[in-house]
Amino acid sequence: IEQNPGEAEFHQALREVMESIRVVVEENEEEYKKNALLERLANPERQIKFRVPWVDDNGQVQVNTGYRVQFNSAIGPYKGGLRFHSSVNIGIIKFLGFEQIFKNSLTGLPIGGGKGGSNFDPKGKSDREVMAFCQSFMTELYRHIGADTDVPAGDIGVGAREVGFLFGQYKRLSNLYEGVLTGKGLTFGGSLTRTEATGYGLLYFTNAMLKANDIDIAGKTIAVSGAGNVAIYAIEKAQQLGGKPVTCSDSTGWIYDSEGIDVELLKEIKEVKRERLTAYAKARESAEYHEGKGVWTVKCDIALPCATQNELQLEDAKSLVENGVLAVAEGANMPTTIEATEYLQENDVLFAPGKASNAGGVATSALEMAQNSQRLSWTFEEVDAKLQNIMENIFANAAAAAEEYGLDKNYVAGANIAGFKKVVEAMNAQGIV
Ligand code: NDP
Fold it and tell me: DSSP character for 190?
């Protein structure tokens, strides 16, 4: 922490993981100390920071900062998304990259951990401006990545449009047609189910957790935050399973829809028209629009934070508990603060940590890599069935690891321990690197 001041989110993620693997560390203290295992784990293998100049529609040159943190390649090529958002800095990319190591390990697939992005915000930019930015970003990044080295994907602000522009520029510069990015369009190597994967996966995990605790998801009221890729498909799958999602949000306001969210309307507004949620409220009589934060004040049985880090804080946790919430499952990365997580757990709320419950996105990305290597495309049903199986296994492994260490139902600790053990074993076997 002293060596990397000012990286608040990274320190938060580090603290959370280190705290919950304490039981494993104590068992192996001497060996870990001698091999500086935790120090190596907390230091990225490589960190790349670069200038991204581009020209806006007024002919003005703009300059953003690009990042790629190649955190850990013990179990496979670096894998993790790119985030384009004005809040991006090195601390955020490192927190996401660090979490990614354990998440990817939990999937059971051969992928290491990495993350990247830029403080560029695609919101309100023309397609030409987004393309100019993506081409400039890739002009530096392409020399550091590759299908067997590092395979980026989308994240906040990086969807199918951005991945397409990035892939086009990579191909042009490298003269290689390879699976160097995931989340690609279906006409150029993308996988069916990838768009739905994180949201669907979140619900497969949540459903497994609820079932293990004798709770039926059918008929339950669900509060969801966010209105992006994860939130939309979490809402869709929750409805398919018989639940009733009644909220969604963006960074300016939130929707309460007493009839349940109309997911087709939400898709049209967010994915096609790229409009704000005010447009949803205008188009639907049963919906109310509220400025600012407030999703967690709604009475619900299940809460699914699917927007961004630290969006569910202690006062939100208190309000959820007061309203009788049964389970909180993270669709976003680290959306719940440490204090809020502890408060929920102390009040017997089932809690699914993002690195386990949102792993469906990266798991399906790894399936996209497998299809690209085979030069084949699997059907939607095939990928969806594999996704469901992976999520149920992640739940079973996290639950078993928690139980093994006497931390029954503490899925945060279980996920961290299960993810950590595999990475550490692989690191040890590969010597001091
Ligand atoms: P999108 O860009 O598609 O959507 C993000 C949503 O969250 C938007 O509604 C956005 O609102 C809102 N949001 C973003 N930043 C903030 C903020 N600072 N305050 C309030 N609301 C905010 O991103 P995704 O849905 O892909 O990602 C959401 C979360 O899920 C992130 O934490 C991401 O890391 C995580 N995740 C995503 C995966 C994926 O496959 N996409 C995989 C695993 C995790 P607005 O439009 O107003 O900015």
Answer: P
